[in-house]
Amino acid sequence: MQAVVNAQDAVGHRVGRRREGRISFDALVMKTVTGAAFAALLLVSQGCQTLVPSADTTDANAEPATALPFPEPKPPQRELDEDLVYSYLVGEIAAHRGDLRLSQSHYQHAAILARDAYAAERATRIALHLKDYQAGLASVRRWVELAPNDMTARQLAAVLFMRDKQLDAAAEQLDALILIADARGVDGYLQAAGALSVENDRASAEQLMQGLHDRNPDDVRSLYGLAVLEAAHRRFGEAESRLREVISRKPDWEQPRVLLSRVLVAQSRRDEAVAILEQSVRLYPDSVVLRTTYARMLVDASDFPRALAEFRELFRLSPDDDEVAFGYAMLATQQQAWDEARPVWQALRGQPDRRDEASYYLAQIEEQTGHDDVAIGLFRSVNGSELKVDAVMRAAQIYARTGRLDEARDLLQQARIANPGRAADLYIAETQIVQKHGDNAQALALYDDALRTFPENHDLRYNRALFVVELGDFPAMERDLRLILDQDPDNADALNALGYTLADRNERLDEAFTLVARALKLKPDSPAVLDSMGWVLYRRGDLAEAATYLRRALDMTRDDEIAAHLGEVLWVKGQRDDAQAVWRDALAHKPDSDKIRAVIERLQAGQ
Q1: 10 Å Cβ neighbour count for 79?
Q2: 108-112, 346-350, 402-406, 555-559: which has the minimum mean pLDDT?
Q3: Between 423-437 and 405-418, two packed helices, what is the crossing angle to 10 degrees?
Q4: Residue 472 DSSP label
Q5: Is the pTM of this model over 0.90?
């Protein structure tokens, strides 16, 4: 997808590319719907996905569906007296002051005096925090005695008995937990797995969970709970085997299928995970849980067209779910399905907590479809959120592009006053606009003003360095880059830009090699730096090694300048058919590339 705002055009075609991560509109305005950043945004918007599902979020002590299994003790008849009141007050005040040991002892005393489950619970939790497991055991025993049908009390009792190496007693607490959970309509096996999954003694935890399953072999939930614990312990092979058995025994249960897909991903078997979810969605097409998990995984795999199809169906199934609507609108926007995305964003604008985001992305659609004034109005309506300044910068870019440079600059200058924390970013945005739509003198004056205000801002100084070299002032560029490197010797962008520029000018090639080599050590997987290294090696006459670096860079990104460089190296090596093949492929993806055409004309003219 073409970036909604492309500020790269504001700088020269070669040196401008040297800066990976150039601070421009695309860098400043973080929520452009494109690429990996889009995937991350969409995944975050849909909520975090842990590998292991949490225990059932149903209130563990909700009203039971059937009679509770353990008789409740009669409420105590004791009147409040000085000793009891004193114990409660000291326990509470000490907790607030951070004297947890004093607090624990007084809550424990209050639990004994008043036979109060709340005091016993407080004493237990504080003892656990203090890692005083003997005090915790004493308190939790009292808690279970006073609230025998409290699931949390049983969970913590099991944990404390396990930590005390009393595995039989811990197992009794887990058995009680299952009985209580069944009466309350909760999955007690997940409650047990959740409590045990955070324990350091993994062997004892798995022994307890295995025993729970062995005592309940006909209840498929016990097998799933064991798989959950094994997945939490990263024993993925065992968890996978059990999950497949659970699915074979209860094929319509959604959660084991979801967990199996995550276990497969954890084993670097994403394709299998996607296939499992695809099959599951075909079997149970109305399952929102399965389809949502499948759609998220497709987004994570950057398979946006298929993800859009799934979110389209999710939106049909759950039209009132704002999270689903947001994901659908994001994907439709990313895939340039403007007519699909527009009504969803318009509807989301009616939700107060979504208004700013919806206005922002709807503005992008209106800009892309040629409705510039509508887009400006929507961008300027964004208010009171982190998107406000980004929206101002986008509105300013439209003003400038449509011949209203003064309005663009006024808008950005007002925003600098109103948003001092983003003033440097707004200066960068204005410099980019003036470079593209104003004159060079205006741009240089603006850089001077910005750097007087933010003399330590390396991004501003770096952008100015790239600008002045395009004007032919290499000494000024080098001064700015050297100043950056004096303050930040490991600034890979500055190292790369200076090294590349020296090589491109065919000057001080040993120094250029040293600079780019340092940048490459800092960013070994950067296509821009790999390209620079290839170009330096080419200038030094090492054609074979140059071609190796350039091929690596081109394999990582279909950048037409990298293709131009690789083609030139191959041409000079005598591999002219290979060079022409590289250029043809690049032109197929970017037919209007002046970089490719320029190098072809120059080399063919020299035949």
Answers
A1: 7
A2: 108-112
A3: 170
A4: T
A5: no
